[in-house]
Amino acid sequence: MRIERIPLLLALSLAAHIAAAQPDEGSATGDAPQDPVIAVRPAPPPTRAVSTTDAVADAAALEEIVVTAERRVASVQDTPISIEAFNAETIELRGIQGVHDLSAQVPALTIEPFPTHNATLRLFIRGVGVYDAQLTQDPAVGVYLDGVYIARSVGLALDLADLDRIEVLRGPQGTLYGRNTTGGAINLITKRPDPGAFSMSAQTGGGSRSNYRAKASFNVPVTDDLALGLALLGNRRDGFVDNTGPGEDFGDRSELAGRLSARWLPTAWLTTDYSYDHSDLRYANTLFQAVLPPNTNKGQAELFKPYAVSQTVYSERRLRHLATGAPMEESGSRIDGHALTLTAPLGAFELKYIGAWRKLRDEEYADLGGGAGSTTYRLDSNAYAGPAATVANGGPTPLVIPTVTQEQFSHELQFGGRLFDDRVEFIVGAYAFRETGREDRHRLNHQLSTAISPDQLDELSASLPELDPILGSLGIIDFSQIDQLRLVNFVDFDWTIANRATALFGQATWTPPFEALQDRLHLTVGYRRSSDEREAVKFRISDTYVEVQANGQGTARLLSSAEKFDYVRSARSFRDDAWSFVAAYELTPAINLYAKSVEAYKSGGFNVRDPHISGASQGNTYGFGFVDGFAPEYVQSWEAGIKSEWLGRRLRVNADVFRSDYTDMQINFLIPGTISDTKTINAGKARMRGFELDATAQLHADLRLSADYAWLDAEVLEVIDPQGNNVADLYPFTSAPRHSGVVALDWTALRAGWGELRAYGSYNYIAQRQGNVITEERRGLTSIPAYGLWNARLSAAGIRMGSEGTLDLALWGRNLADKVYPLMAIDNLPQSDRAVVWGEPRSLGLELTYRFRR
User: Fold this and answer.
1) Nearest-angstrom CA–CA distance, 693 and 472
2) What is the pLDDT of residues 275-333, one digit of tens each?
3) With contact defined as beta carbons under 8 Å apart, do 128 and 122 qualify?
4) Which terminus of the chain is less hemmed in, N or C, by CB atoms within 10 Å?
5) For residue 295, what are the contacts with CB-CB under 8 A and spacing of at least 6?
């Protein structure tokens, strides 16, 4: 892959620097109110003479962290939520470029790319998430960009331009954030323009595997009350597994992202914020590397398993070269979004409106072949020109790249403030959301083709009694006449969604006026009424042909057809009432205790990979099908925690324990003997409990140590199959590591007049994850073993460039020990019981950043 857009960003950065160097003749001098940020707030100015010892003590104090997790500005120490927050400096220091980089930074949060479209992410917080990303199924972790809910996890594996802060809220967030936050929420907040001063930054760098990255951001005051912001980002890198077959190399990617924003302050009582963001990602999906040959029963694939094995490369170590048979095609994601936020302070109150429109287009080409470059064993949607295509399609079937499109609109109105001498702080609001979407593969196309080994023909004939009449109709009475026999599967998919959601919500915190409590007790109650209307329409054809080459001629006949979906429609409505109760107590000014009870709900929906129309469908042993759909899941969670600072704010220790009980939990499982057919069930009962610890110590004014840890015990307690058996042992939480943690050291080694030398290093650990289980004999085949990764960054920062500019030079490294570890694993390929996508090997790079402010 190539990207030609990086030089454009460098040119823009240079032009901005030249413009910034011009004399300032009319810049605005007024200060505009800014959104709350995670800021470095030094100790209050002294009112007495300060000794050297006192000055060192003040410099060594930890900064206050300000968040908006409860839709209000508050210190993280006063927010009764298990939360991890990162400001712009920390985002840069830790190399966080988007949602996909958070997994290594937040214990209890695991993130994986989806197997067949790597721009889609699987997000799990405390083990709760969605294993199978579908348009008809909602995520369990809500992602918000500047307060706007992003409904689909498709396209989340993108770098984001101009991030100002990130907040990760662990645990259910059922009242203020509402539907689809049974696991937690991730808030992404971008920088807002400031009419007060012109500023810009430009960064360029490169690294391992031809990694080139450039980004630039500009804050341009237009008048005293109007400012514009522009952020551009370009990135490209090669994958670490070469494709020695035709087409793209696995894992290659290039992207361009931009964001245009405006802040207008027309009056003292109104702030208007507008933003437009655009992302364009081009990439080649990774190829699963086979680790174990198939020794378990593959159902329908048993017929061609021996031949599939002969066309597959196996290795327990990470290979640098694999090959496709058909050309590996490029995939891509394009996202456009508009958002408008109006904020009106009304005395002691504030009225806010957030309106947004977002559009997504994602093209997902995947190859699930054996990596040996076989053209006679294929699992892809590329063109096919054999006799079966002529019979089924009247000629060759075309290349088809499955395409997901989605469009969403949302409106949210918030009203909040303080009452009764500030003893009651409240927020109430209304929310409306609408989306339409389509997954389009609506041309007959190739999905699987395989030759059959000659020594398998007798077995094939015995397994498929319908085969002999077909061969007889072709004039073949003896297998010795056959030069080659193939099975070819063609599919035609098309499904659409139309969803609506509305909600009314409110939360109020009361500080009782009892003298004995000294305003230390705060009682909070929250409520949300959610309504969902969901509709899905499914079209599907899946036909398998037998293709015979005999006596120098090729012929084909239809062998079998799956149940046909001819635009089958299903629609359901759901309602929910969720409550939250919190009691917080300030034991001392530096120690806060809290206990809370929270309810949350995730909407029901439909499973488009279900092969049966309804529970009455022929051959359906599961008792439900596509039109039956599945019910919502519910969670009741209890949590108790402490937020504390010690030793003059040099030590911060936040910890919590929790228990969550799930009912009707939505679990996707693969139907044995199939490659991609799944069922979604509502588990009867599931339980999780855990402990989380976030600790930061300012050991010295120039040395900071942080250690974050999460312990998780998650278990599905009850899943009743159609026969009435409890088969919960077959449904573990797929991504719920028992232990996870991050240790980081930030050391400013030298401070001088020209700048500073700074070193940052981290180690993140994640324990074994169980993975999906299909049958007992296949338990553990998709598990991910424990691993830990070392990362580091060395920088010379704040180098003076004139009176208003600075330069940073940084060296960074990820996975410094070059740990070989699987990122994800599957066991449902015909050719393998365990196939994996490996995690990124060691990467090294250099960054150069210039900043200017006037």
Assistant:
1) 71
2) 999 999 999 999 999 999 999 888 778 888 999 999 999 999 999 999 999 999 999 99
3) no
4) C
5) 833
Tell me how far apart the alpha carbons of residues 251 and 239 are, in angstroms, rounded to a whole number. Answer: 4
Cα dihedral across residues 663, 664, 667, 672: positive or negative: positive
pLDDT value of residue 59: 58
| Least confident interval from 10-24, 583-597, 784-798 | 10-24
Separation between Cα atoms, residue 386 and residue 375, nearest integer Å: 12
Alpha helices by DSSP H, 21-176? 52-59, 88-93
Q: Where are the alpha helices (DSSP H) in 287-412?
A: 305-310, 387-393
Domain extent, residue 575, equals 6-853
Name 174's Cβ contacts closer than 8 Å, sequence gap at least 6.
Answer: 181, 182, 528, 578, 580, 598, 599, 600, 601, 635
Q: Is residue 492 part of a domain?
A: yes
- β-pairing, 651-670 vs 591-602, is unpaired
- Going by C-alpha positions, the residue among 121, 537, 536 that lies closest to residue 362 is 121
- CA–CA gap between residue 541 and residue 561 (Å, rounded): 8
Residue 30 φ then ψ, to 5°? -75, 150
Residue 623: inside a domain = yes
Q: Which of 78, 175, 179 lies closest to 507, judged by CA? A: 175
User: Which helix H or strand E contains 20, and what residues bound it?
Assistant: helix 6-20
Q: Determine if residue 146 is left, alpha or beta; phi over 0 gives left, psi from -120 to 50 gives alpha, anything else beta.
A: left
Domains in the chain, number: 1
The backbone torsions φ and ψ at residue 790, rounded to the nearest 5 degrees and listed phi first, read -100, 135
Residue 322 lies in a domain: yes
Name the amino acid, one letter, at 487: L
The candidate with the shortest Cα–Cα distance to 331, out of 361, 351, 298, 291, is 361
Q: Do residues 320 and 242 lie in contact, with contact meaning Cβ atoms separated by under 8 Å?
A: yes
Is 1 part of any domain? no
3-state secondary structure of 195: coil
Q: Where are the alpha helices (DSSP H) in 457-601?
A: 457-463, 467-473
pTM for this model (two decimals): 0.88
Which CATH number goes with the domain that contains 693?
2.40.170.20
Residues in a beta bridge with 448 = 489
Using alpha carbons, list the distances in angstroms from residue 298 to 96, 149, 372, 516, 775. Answer: 41, 40, 21, 70, 11
CA separation (Å) from 585 to 70, 173, 522, 643, 805? Answer: 17, 21, 6, 10, 46
Q: Which amino acid is at 455?
A: D
Q: Give just the sign of the alpha carbon dihedral 595, 596, 597, 600.
A: negative
